User: Fold these one by one.
Assistant:
Number 1:
Amino acid sequence: MNKLLLSLIVSIFLSGELYAQNAYDITEEEALKVLLSAKTKAEEMDVLVNIAVTDAGANLKAFIRMDASYLGSIDVAIKKAKTARYFNIDTGKLGEMTQPGGIIYNIELSNGGLITFPGGLPIKNKDNVIIGAIGISGGTIEQDRAIAIAAAQSILEL
Amino acid sequence: MNKLLLSLIVSIFLSGELYAQNAYDITEEEALKVLLSAKTKAEEMDVLVNIAVTDAGANLKAFIRMDASYLGSIDVAIKKAKTARYFNIDTGKLGEMTQPGGIIYNIELSNGGLITFPGGLPIKNKDNVIIGAIGISGGTIEQDRAIAIAAAQSILEL
Amino acid sequence: MNKLLLSLIVSIFLSGELYAQNAYDITEEEALKVLLSAKTKAEEMDVLVNIAVTDAGANLKAFIRMDASYLGSIDVAIKKAKTARYFNIDTGKLGEMTQPGGIIYNIELSNGGLITFPGGLPIKNKDNVIIGAIGISGGTIEQDRAIAIAAAQSILEL
Amino acid sequence: MNKLLLSLIVSIFLSGELYAQNAYDITEEEALKVLLSAKTKAEEMDVLVNIAVTDAGANLKAFIRMDASYLGSIDVAIKKAKTARYFNIDTGKLGEMTQPGGIIYNIELSNGGLITFPGGLPIKNKDNVIIGAIGISGGTIEQDRAIAIAAAQSILEL
């Protein structure tokens, strides 16, 4: 069984390009930078948050939960990041359109559950291309959004 | 095969500390006390309810359903307790912020479904540390909340 | 709103039979007896378990988790009890038929996930009628089953 | 509305102990140490993996995905970590008991899906108490397990 897996892996490595990172996808280094920048910002603001980073494919790339932050914010932070990338939008802006009577009322029910209040933002590279997204949960919506903005911008320093 | 499991279990017991209960986690004795206090309170008030207790990790610790109480309240009671621990809050207070136009509108769609009307409360120990949560469902929201308050406070008598 | 609910409740009470417990359904008193008997038996055997009781409708009736027992056993204990009532069978006996090549291979995939190894048993009243089920998880399969047997029989003492 | 949340948060902070981290729960600092140790080990071994850390309550604490590692390994790594904590066990050891004919065949169907091959391990502190778990996915099962071992032990250096 292991031989099968091994030969599979060898052939994959030999094929070279297969593992190539999408050119416009956030890297592990960038994701860690965003994560730690958000953590630093949250500590400066004295807020306890959960921090989630997704890649260009809206898949989880990095995550950290500060001690004693809300357990319920694990899922909220991840859903904020996914929502921001699903629709390339500030989650708070999306929420303005999902209220009763809004043009996309209850879109929260799609994609396994969206979060449409502030704290989720697309992450853009120096060329203004969206390469992923960040979601923050645990503080007030204003605090969450401020941390997300600072963290998303931090990769421009790399 | 059974010998394997047996030796595994023996080795776990010999390792001593492995099974240690978290210092700030509700105990079985406390959970039973909360459960029976809620039951007594509900009987005094002549209300039929479901009673759920979760631990500090928001995992189910104890549960009882009174005869002829709503079947649909099984899940509501459990979700109320989980919600109260997820965000360390009275579920009714959370609900004030999740209404249309509210700052965290539709957060109910996270964490596999939240319940954000009264009846869920964090459980605190004598040092005011949250060690779990309780959720009551089956009566009016005022009744559910009154039962939750009485039950959560009952562990201070232990 | 509360008046509506109140009048609803009053009308339900006046209708009498509506809240009547199924004649062959486990009562809250019986469920608590089963729960505490299982707990006592587990303590005598020095095993840490999760204990779940379902009613005749396979709905959760009572639950308790002993301190430091497996977190993963919450769901396993509940699924054992549900499985035992779904098919009115000792879960271990069901497992003999679900192995590869067995007549009901992989039935575990139904009903949101079954558990088909020992520890789940129907609960019968004095007239030999099934009124619910019990599920035990946390010890060896032999220990879990022994606790389930002792607990299921305890209601005959009431 | 924001004032409500603000006053709520202020009152929570004033209550002091409320945000206390459980004494036997992995800290953010420890989780980051485990994450980065796993990353370093994987780079040394030239393997691309997903790394997940859960806390004592089996809730996600930290996560990182190396560039070009399998997308499918996000969920596998998280489930390995959860499984290791759910049953306080090396996931590979659990898998020996879940095979056809095994004593706990098909337990994988519980808890929303378990992963029972190597790569998940409990994380213990210096006193041998389990404080969380790690899950690695992306390499061979031997590689995943070797990375998990190295990372779990790294917190003893703190």
Number 2:
Amino acid sequence: MIKAGVIGSTGYAGQQLVWFLNNHPDVKINFLSSHSYSGVSFSKIYGNYSKSIESICVDIKEAESKLSEIDILFIALPHGKSFNLVKKALNLGVKVIDLGADFRLKDPDIYKQWYALDHQAINLLPKSIYGLPELNRKIIKESNLIANPGCYPTASILALTPLLKSNIIDPFSIIIDAKSGVSGAGRSLNTSILYGECNESIKAYSVSSHRHTPEIEQVLSQINSENISLLFTPHLVPMNRGILTTCYGNLVKDISQEELYKIYSSFYKDESFVRVIEEIPETKWVKGSNFCDIAIRVDERTKKVIIVSAIDNLIKGAAGQAVQNMNIMFNLDENKGLDLLSMFP
Amino acid sequence: MIKAGVIGSTGYAGQQLVWFLNNHPDVKINFLSSHSYSGVSFSKIYGNYSKSIESICVDIKEAESKLSEIDILFIALPHGKSFNLVKKALNLGVKVIDLGADFRLKDPDIYKQWYALDHQAINLLPKSIYGLPELNRKIIKESNLIANPGCYPTASILALTPLLKSNIIDPFSIIIDAKSGVSGAGRSLNTSILYGECNESIKAYSVSSHRHTPEIEQVLSQINSENISLLFTPHLVPMNRGILTTCYGNLVKDISQEELYKIYSSFYKDESFVRVIEEIPETKWVKGSNFCDIAIRVDERTKKVIIVSAIDNLIKGAAGQAVQNMNIMFNLDENKGLDLLSMFP
Amino acid sequence: MIKAGVIGSTGYAGQQLVWFLNNHPDVKINFLSSHSYSGVSFSKIYGNYSKSIESICVDIKEAESKLSEIDILFIALPHGKSFNLVKKALNLGVKVIDLGADFRLKDPDIYKQWYALDHQAINLLPKSIYGLPELNRKIIKESNLIANPGCYPTASILALTPLLKSNIIDPFSIIIDAKSGVSGAGRSLNTSILYGECNESIKAYSVSSHRHTPEIEQVLSQINSENISLLFTPHLVPMNRGILTTCYGNLVKDISQEELYKIYSSFYKDESFVRVIEEIPETKWVKGSNFCDIAIRVDERTKKVIIVSAIDNLIKGAAGQAVQNMNIMFNLDENKGLDLLSMFP
Amino acid sequence: MIKAGVIGSTGYAGQQLVWFLNNHPDVKINFLSSHSYSGVSFSKIYGNYSKSIESICVDIKEAESKLSEIDILFIALPHGKSFNLVKKALNLGVKVIDLGADFRLKDPDIYKQWYALDHQAINLLPKSIYGLPELNRKIIKESNLIANPGCYPTASILALTPLLKSNIIDPFSIIIDAKSGVSGAGRSLNTSILYGECNESIKAYSVSSHRHTPEIEQVLSQINSENISLLFTPHLVPMNRGILTTCYGNLVKDISQEELYKIYSSFYKDESFVRVIEEIPETKWVKGSNFCDIAIRVDERTKKVIIVSAIDNLIKGAAGQAVQNMNIMFNLDENKGLDLLSMFP
């Protein structure tokens, strides 16, 4: 059994991770840590775990004292909070999967520019691996420190990678118009995520300034061999879960929709969790699952291509992908504990 | 492996059943039958099954020709449609679980009164077992024909049974005020379940005339040893899933809330799927699971007791309970394939 | 022009009141006061007022300094906060409509019992009028201090008054099962009203302990001539607005549904804002309007009557009723500025 | 008083129009016509009109017989259904506002190409005026036949017109990513707009093939003096009302966000219903009103401009704009009967 600890277990992403770890046949949860709810039973915070996970959340200090008892540490904290924890865990030989943003960007200057914070573990950056299995499976297996991708970047990168690998679009024409359910904003107290404020409305936010922009650019630039600048616009949609990205690019060669489908199907043919489908994705078909659905349309009138992808932001966009990475790191079947279809409606 | 056939697989309850059968380690689906979508791939109708259940839905005729190949037949049809199918299946030695209403009421006159239809398999009524495992586990095990309970009756009966067993309330004072998500109304084309008609509104419906009334009365009357008439009022709530019942009764003896909790906890102490909890239930904590959560409040000012119960109408209220019944009938662990917690949010 | 001031203008009820005052042909808003947003433009807080109400919210001190400039003061504060304000305003000859709870209960002991607070303006209680125009129109006209009814009490009392006036039900059998949209919980930061916590779920809350219980009892007891204890259970429904009450009572005489309809239609025949209708009410038909819709069902099997009523909790349940009271106090047409139908969907 | 008739009064747009006409001080509704509900009282179909609009819907034949009694005919029918009606009405000297698509596209070949239908009133096309008051106020005043704009085109054209007038963007770089509430899909029975199918999900649809594309292109091409091809992608969002468009274009000159704001503010300075605002628009601030909110962002990294606009699809995107056009045609104040702010939440 893999012994796991979870820091930040009572946020939405952390709690989703607990769900999957609890459901995983090869994992035993050692501790659940929470800043806001230390000393409280996990099932008092989230009633779905009633009679099932009655253990008491520990504070960060107690969590640190238990690091030597575990094999893997999951961290689901706001950015800037994981530096010391990661160092301590790695020093003790504990593998780390960080669901936060601190180890995703390779360049500490870009980190500082977008997160307004000095990076405090620069020497670890070369060792951290961007945990998108579809791109980095081999190096994830060898790594002790995984930077679990952001939700928007997961959906965006999976949508765009085959296009960029094939040099089919102008890399400077990329626009990603993304739409997310409200759980993506977390569970912190904030007027903007009150029921009455979100329900029955849609808005764009962080236009041209969202922190996932450099993360997407970094990964796509590696694929493209040239640095890419792109435009990323997130929107808030009145639903609990799900991200839909609608990605646009200018075609630089004549290519049919059918040919593009072949490229995508071939690129993802061995992937358990990417489904290249004919119908335009809807978030409802992936909600509650680790899948990423992708469809392709070519607009011959404007010589543009449209790629639409859908994920569950808390699963393939966070906790599910973290478990997928753990499975890889521990040589388990990659889809162990993750083989659930979306439950509809 | 248990070989299963599903009639009515493309309604919401049927589809939910397919989800659980597909997820069950001991079941192999032999055929999926659909009136509206015969000849269509299941995953074209419900995109969550993309790349997973690509089999083609058969029509009822083809389904009947395959009855001899299966061990169990699940029927999820509107009332009045299952009579012949049940006869044929039983004659071939196939066990039957009917998720519809045709075999729940023991008295064909009451059936006719509420469903405006002559019962067409009266001789089977004595053999059919009301498939609520918490009450009828032993006889379910011996039966070949299970009448799977209605969604409202499941939540209502589980809420009220310990009270009636203990002769604590006036059985003629019972009022059940129930609230259901929209999936309970099925997937048939009907203006009243269009998005714009349901969203942002709540209504009562079928006031004093809902067909689940006699079903609840029948089961509670058996417990009470005297025939009970009660008032049942369903409401439609703008959410996909979930039933909350708020049940009221007049206390006939002085009893504290604590004592009532002891009675309930004791009554359900060996049940996997009933959770007697302190907090008032919320449907979100059971959504996606087979649990029924129950809490108790005594109002000393009015000498009334309030029992609140919550289930997922498509799971404990339909497909999950059907699988639970199947597990019992086939001597499997009762919670096999059903041991999922609600995924939140 | 009536010069009006609003204290607590940036909560949901306060803001709804501003909407109606702004829309009223005979009212000029003198000041908007806010604890949380003093110094901020009203339209920065609520974007619907962009280019329309750009005035800056004042703090309570500035509001008090302007009392002498106004004809009427509306107060939309949490309970316990309005005592001094009301005294000051009345002393200056300013009429007051308090949308909060502080002047609704006539008995300061009951106030203390349910609100856990000593009443601090006991001498004003005899002068305050419960502002339900359908019952108290005449004395509202003469009053300077209106206790604007609670949302649940408005819907409940309008539903039950004709029954009690006619001595048709056992007054001790009354159960009110009420369902409210989330705006009823206000706009304060509270995890329980985050989008992810309310959406896709229904719950009961404050079972047998909600503070609107004694308010309903007080008014119905006056009608009944004997003190009534009743059971009131509120529920939280995933929608922005609307209250539906399902009220139950035991009939003490043989009476048909048709006769009851005659009693209700007659009782409310001169009312602009109460609609006695055949169809069971749905909150969507009153949302955005000052109407209360009421329907009646008799269940002959159990000798019970069910009254269903629907209001918009922020309008007939708060701001609309406040404006209706103002119209009465200032001898205006009672429906002035309130004659809007619900906009659907 | 203006005597008005409404054809197609029981669809969502038609019904919204009835709401505004009923609310308009200078309009008297002469007849309401409905294909699906002829012979039924309007308030039986839409309960918000209970006790208010009890008149019986007439069929098309009776409606035609009443054409001579009215001053203006509003038509809210699916495309292809209004040709004869328009001819008859115009021949009788009745002004016509067609909320459908039949008279929007000037080129019958383009109409045929996108609507798969031969245009059957080609001679009327030169006389029909595209009823976007902000662009065509003067010729609307002189016209007898108004083609009321589509919902998406209204939001898109208002967002993009000042940019194109100023030659600031590459007209061939335009991408419009639009999001609509479900009422935009109408009230016809269709599985895809059932509650369970729309709730808790977002999807793109009609990607690169939506019929509003040529309508937007036609109007923007007139502004641009060169024919524009653009990419338009609509999405379905789980909310009743509202359209948000996120419009992208490549800047062809160095220009700051501030300068763009000046251009927009100047362009719309005399408009009652267009609000150029600092904050990114949210549909909740315009829902229930005739406003179009617009904000501008410049992304200096990619040299792109993002314009976000929000409208209520049933009001500024349909019925409100129709009334605005009527006001212009009859020399009334343009905002008469339309001066309502959005009611929140």
